[in-house]
Design goal:
Distance between the termini of chain A: 19 Å
Strand content of chain B: under 5%
Oligomer: heterodimer
Shape of chain A: globular
Number of helices of chain A: 15
Order of helices and strands of chain B: HHHHEEHHHHHHH
Distance between the termini of chain B: 45 Å
Structural class of chain A: mainly alpha
Number of strands of chain B: 2
Helix content of chain A: over 70%
Largest interface: A-B, 43 and 43 residues
Radius of gyration of chain A: 20 Å
Number of helices of chain B: 11
Structural class of chain B: mainly alpha
Shape of chain B: globular
Largest sheet of chain B: 2 strands, antiparallel
Chain lengths: 328, 291
């Protein structure tokens, strides 16, 4: 893959973010901020689920550890947000590694249930460890982010910052996708036995994908905490893990464009379908089911099928590419 | 001591409900390979089918229970047609997300139909208490344990003494071979969904008087049924029973002896331990790595 693609992905996100920030009103900017934050988490989930095929129903718990990390460091210890964010992300990465080492031996629905159990346990602890997490009252008065003395106090300036982070992380994700590591993840998803035969360390690749997904989740969690400036356990329940998964599936799993599209669509869908009122979720479930049945590779997949026909040739499967690298 | 007897019976009653929910989950899983994440919503539908028939339509309980179970059987058939048939060739992950999506729709539909105000579903043995060795126990708890035991016996008879049940087991073991033997595979697969919905319905009707009937009750039940299935062993019917009773007992005993805030952490902690140390559970799955 050419080096231009990540640059292009980042630039598109940036331009879209900046121009939308000029066009839209405050309420829609708020939604756009939430969509950008979700998109970071979903791009992360794409490493684990889209590339490596690890079904995780515990992604919101990693978003939660990132958010609680920055919230606790900034409120309890009065750290600077810029110091708290990397520390919280690193802490989440370590946690993901310790959880991933035993859990990633599981496959399919076993892994789904284990990660679900992890998310539920996280929620129970967050809601009941009142001395630290404030219980269901959550943590308030999280400081706002400041850049060179300017506080990112309104939705517009926050969106500029969030678009920048998203653009950067999307570009990095595109780079990883095109690299040896990205292809190794996809090879592991497609066939574990065959990829271990080509010299891929399956366990390590899975762990890397899982930790990467947690790192992105933690960044999203940190941004969420600084945006809302208040967090509570219900922001990170397993229902949110399901939402992230739905975003990825709707947009198109295994695709960064899909992750972006899905996060935007699922965040704005309730807004566009306001006439449905309280029946929205009933519609949403059927909508996701319809996507699974009629568009199994999501909205991003429509485009991919088109380009596939245009070029008239099959791209080299990840496994073959990986095996060539291992041999050379 | 009397406290302990009371807790044990209540734990067994709650565990019986989880066991029934887990059995329904396991029947569908072994027959169709589908991990039904909407299993908890099935139980919730059962409870609310009871609310609709007994409270809203004011039917006498034998008629109301019958009508509720017929509604559940129809729902099982509908689920088979709308979710399983279109998605059966898809990867397991797609089907999992599909059941999650339908679960969201089910919960929202129940909320729209019944509102967020909880209902109190009466029991046929409402208000009757028994005294066993000095401990006061509600007749409903005892009835739940007895009905569950009865259901287990009936299921055993179905699966091992009728040609219908033997056919269902054959399909669960090998769809292709079953089809070659002339079994009507699709009909038997539909039947396993209907059976699962019926068991969830019975679980829901029995759970109604123990908890408040609330449209958000599905998720906690699903989580307990999953924990029960993992602990007992994925795909094993005796495992579902043992796991269900264990989860129910640990919840009730844990709440009163350890901590009521962390009671659920006990069953999930044990579930995760099982996943890590003995993923095949107490009774083990016949076919490894099936998912």
């Amino acid at each position: 893959m050419s080096k231009r693609v990540p640059l292009l992905a980042g630039t598109v996100v940036l331009i879209a973010g900046f121009s939308l920030s000029m066009l839209l009103a405050d309420y829609h900017l708020r939604l756009l901020n939430l969509a950008a934050i979700s998109a970071i988490a979903v791009i992360g989930l794409n490493f684990a689920f889209g590339y490596a095929g690890l079904i995780s129903l515990g992604h919101a718990a990693f978003v939660g550890t990132g958010a609680y990390g920055v919230a606790l460091l900034t409120t309890l210890f009065a750290w600077s947000p810029w110091l708290a964010l990397p520390v919280a992300v690193a802490g989440t990465a370590v946690l993901a590694m310790f959880i991933g080492i035993p859990l990633l031996r599981l496959k399919g629905h076993y892994l789904a249930l284990a990660t679900l159990g992890f998310n539920v346990s996280f929620s129970i602890v967050a809601a009941n460890w009142i001395e630290v997490t404030g219980g269901t009252n959550g943590i308030s008065r999280i400081p706002e982010l400041q850049i060179a003395g300017h506080a990112l106090a309104n939705e517009r300036s926050y969106l500029w910052f969030a678009s920048l982070v998203l653009a950067l992380l999307a570009a990095v994700a595109t780079l990883i996708h095109g690299s040896r590591h990205g292809r190794a993840m996809i090879a592991v998803r497609d066939d574990e036995t065959a990829s271990s035969m080509t010299g891929i360390d399956v366990t390590r690749v899975k762990l890397v994908a899982f930790v990467l997904s947690a790192v992105y989740a933690a960044v999203a969690g940190g941004l969420f905490a600084f945006h809302m400036r208040f967090i509570s356990p219900e922001d990170f329940g397993y229902a949110h893990s399901i939402t992230y998964l739905a975003m990825l599936v709707v947009g198109g799993e295994g695709s960064i464009l899909g992750a972006l599209l899905g996060s935007l669509l699922v965040t704005f869908l309730p807004e566009w379908l306001r006439f449905l009122g309280s029946a929205y979720l009933a519609f949403f479930g059927l909508f996701v089911l319809a996507i699974l049945i009629f568009l199994p590779s999501g909205f991003a997949g429509i485009r991919r099928q088109g380009s596939f026909r245009r070029h008239g040739r099959i791209k080299m499967p990840a496994l073959i590419a990986a095996s060539k690298e291992a041999r050379s | 001591m009397t406290d302990l007897i009371q807790l044990l019976i209540n734990g067994l009653a709650l565990g019986s409900v989880y066991a029934l929910a887990a059995i329904g989950f396991v029947i569908v899983y072994s027959a169709t390979g589908v991990v039904n994440f909407a299993a908890g919503q099935f139980v919730m539908f059962g409870t609310f089918a009871g609310v609709a028939m007994l409270l809203n339509a004011q039917l006498p309980w034998p008629v109301g229970y019958g009508a509720a179970l017929i509604a559940m059987a129809l729902f099982g058939a509908l689920f088979f047609a709308v979710l399983y048939l279109p998605l059966r060739a898809s990867p397991v992950v797609t089907i999992i997300i599909g059941t999650v999506a339908i679960g969201i729709t089910m919960q929202n539909a129940a909320l729209l139909a019944f509102g967020s105000w909880p209902f109190r579903l009466p029991s046929p043995v409402e208000g009757i208490n028994l005294t066993i060795a000095g401990a006061t126990i509600s007749a409903h708890a005892v009835a739940v344990v007895i009905v569950t035991a009865l259901m287990v016996v009936l299921l055993w008879l179905l699966f091992f003494r009728t040609s219908l049940g033997i056919g269902m087991r054959a399909v669960a073991q090998d769809v292709k071979a079953a089809r070659l033997m002339g079994l009507k595979v699709n009909r038997l697969l539909a039947l396993s969904w209907i059976l699962a919905a019926l068991l969830a319905g019975i679980a829901g009707l029995m759970l109604g008087p123990m908890w408040f009937a609330d449209t958000s009750m599905g998720d906690p039940i699903a989580l307990k049924a999953f924990a029960a299935t993992i602990i007992g062993g994925f795909g094993s019917l005796p495992g579902a029973i043992v796991g269900g009773l264990f989860v129910g007992l640990s919840e009730v005993l844990g709440a009163s002896y350890v901590s009521s805030a962390y009671k659920d952490l006990i069953s999930f902690g044990i579930m995760i331990l099982f996943l890590l140390l003995r993923p095949q559970g107490v009774f083990g799955e016949r076919i490894q790595d099936r998912g």
